[in-house]
Design a protein that fits this description.
This protein is of the alpha+beta class. The protein contains 6 helices and 4 strands. α4 runs antiparallel to α6 and α5 crosses α6. It starts with a helix and ends with a strand.
């Protein structure tokens, strides 16, 4: 759908964009990136979304794909198994390893179940979370080495 159709139908200015780029714009406007000239927004969901801010604006890149971090390879030796950053640090990077350790299916474990277990001191949840944090911070360190931004926002 084109934004102009929504603008015409509802009589208010509308824009349509990628979710992470919208998040980056929101953080620039009223959030953690307000008054920051460079930053990265990482959105954790089923995959990972990213928005890059340079010179106080969301950077789209030559093809509009700047910040699309989901498909960054994380383990080049495991590429046939699709070891991409989104698979490791999206929500399934938490719930799948935890479900496997507990002998459960993916349908039996979601983020709430996982974080309740973590909060209640479950050792399996703790080990999965520590591994998750290690891979997340590794990706952030790599991005920082390339972009050298002022701030990262994670949500």
């Amino acid at each position: 759908m084109k934004a102009s159709i929504l603008t015409e139908k509802y009589g208010v200015p509308c824009a349509i964009d990628n979710d992470a780029k919208c998040a980056a714009n929101a953080e620039l406007w009223q959030g953690a990136l307000k008054d920051v000239s460079s930053g990265v927004v990482i959105i954790i969901g089923t995959g990972l979304g990213g928005g890059v801010v340079l010179n106080g604006k969301v950077w789209r890149g030559i093809n509009g794909a700047s910040g699309e971090i989901s498909n960054l390879p994380y383990d080049y030796h495991a590429l046939p198994e699709r070891k991409f950053w989104a698979g490791i640090n999206g929500v399934y990077g938490l719930v799948d390893p935890y479900a496997t350790r507990k002998g459960l299916t993916r349908n039996e474990v979601n983020g709430r179940v996982f974080f309740d277990a973590l909060k209640n001191g479950d050792e399996d949840a703790k080990e999965v979370f520590e591994s998750y944090i290690l891979t997340m911070t590794s990706g952030i360190v790599n991005m920082q080495a390339i972009l050298d931004v002022e701030k990262f926002c994670i949500g």
